[in-house]
Design a protein that fits this description.
With 366 residues, this protein is an alpha/beta fold. Helix content is 30%, strand content 23%.
């Protein structure tokens, strides 16, 4: 059974509970597990790679991470999705050992973060959002310097560096200065650096930041290969919906709290219907009209209305007719992670739009 199947199938939004955070593994309620887990002796499950229990972190009076609990299983590609200020950057800094756990517990490979920081650092690879390459050095020289930090030397280090540069498609450019590389090429060198000491957990902060679509595809092909063929657990932060959709499981964060945690497909399935979004100059008036004439309950959203219904496609015509010219545009689509985020928070993730990017059909009143 794949570790990524260890999820609660009906975990309510806002619950801060990972797949194995039941009070007793023997006594866990089997009815609340997905079919992939139901009936399995939970005592046989592998220990989580990452265990976070009631973690809280403050900057003065501001709470950046608020009573957060979850687990990451071996072999997962686990993502933290949230806007700026959601707590994901602070959480990443804690997991990468740059910040201590102020309150609560964090264990990585069963090492306590505050007591065994050096042991954790030897076991993890980290790729930060900010570039960490020396642009005056070649790709090979950057990896050699990284290897020295982990006590690697000589032939072993040179062979590892060549293998990784070949794997990221840069072996023929190994003796060129990285200052002349594109953003995607530099990101691949960063990835090779993070893997040089052969970690079993790779942490990436906004890995696709600044990359063009082709470079993002190349990066994710590498991450999938590392995860599937090398058994490396991948944990990343992102604000991009297409990137979040590639994860085995996803934790959605808002204002430092864990809003939901499940597989992307399961999160979208919770909405249980098609999504209709209406742009209108009179949202309150149109909402009242749709409720009175069609029995449609809608929510005010940005400059319009939004609702979820299994039969939403059949309501497009009646809605346009009932609106009497109040509709500027109306869109219909299957649930996306953007819709999940809106459902949980009442607003879009900043900088993201789900409509055209996810194949929604948009109807104009013109």
């Amino acid at each position: 059974m794949e570790p990524s199947a260890y999820v609660f199938g009906d975990q309510a939004a806002g619950e801060q509970r990972g797949p194995a955070l039941a009070e007793s593994r023997e006594g866990a309620d089997q009815s609340r597990l997905t079919p992939a887990v139901r009936g399995v002796n939970l005592l046989l499950m592998p220990a989580p790679v990452v265990q976070i229990g009631r973690l809280t972190h403050r900057y003065g009076q501001r709470v950046a991470v608020d009573e957060l609990s979850l687990e990451v299983q071996a072999g997962e590609i686990f993502g933290f999705l949230g806007p700026n200020g959601s707590g994901k950057t602070t959480l990443f800094r804690i997991l990468s050992t740059l910040l201590p756990a102020q309150s609560g517990t964090v264990r990585i490979f069963d090492h306590d973060l505050n007591d065994s920081r050096d042991a954790i650092r030897r076991a993890i690879g980290v790729v930060f959002q900010s570039p960490s390459l020396d642009k005056q050095l070649t790709a090979m020289e950057n990896l050699i310097c990284q290897g020295h930090l982990y006590g690697l030397r000589g032939k072993e280090l040179a062979e590892r560096a060549e293998v990784l540069l070949n794997r990221v498609g840069l072996l023929d450019r190994r003796n060129e200065r990285v200052g002349g590389f594109s953003g995607g090429m530099r990101r691949r060198v960063e990835l090779a650096k993070g893997l040089l000491h052969q970690p079993k957990l790779l942490l990436l902060d906004e890995p696709s930041t600044g990359l063009d679509p082709a470079a993002r595809i190349d990066l994710w092909q590498l991450l999938s290969e590392i995860n599937q063929h090398d058994g490396v657990t991948v944990l990343l932060t992102t604000h991009l919906m297409d990137e979040a959709d590639r994860c085995s499981r996803l934790a959605i964060l808002g204002n430092g709290k864990l809003l939901a945690c499940d597989a992307p497909s399961a999160l979208k399935a919770r909405l249980g219907g098609q999504i209709v979004t209406i742009t209108t100059p009179d949202a309150p008036g149109l909402s009242q009209r749709l409720q009175q004439q069609l029995g449609v309950e809608s929510a005010l959203f940005e400059n319009g209305l939004r609702f979820e219904r299994p039969d939403a496609h059949a309501l497009i015509g009646p809605i346009v007719e009932a609106a009497g010219g109040l509709i500027q545009s109306i869109s219909l689509g299957q649930p996306t992670l953007e819709d999940v985020f809106i459902h949980l928070t009442g607003h879009r993730l900043a900088g993201e739009r789900a409509d055209a990017a996810h194949g929604e059909r948009t109807y104009s009143s013109a």
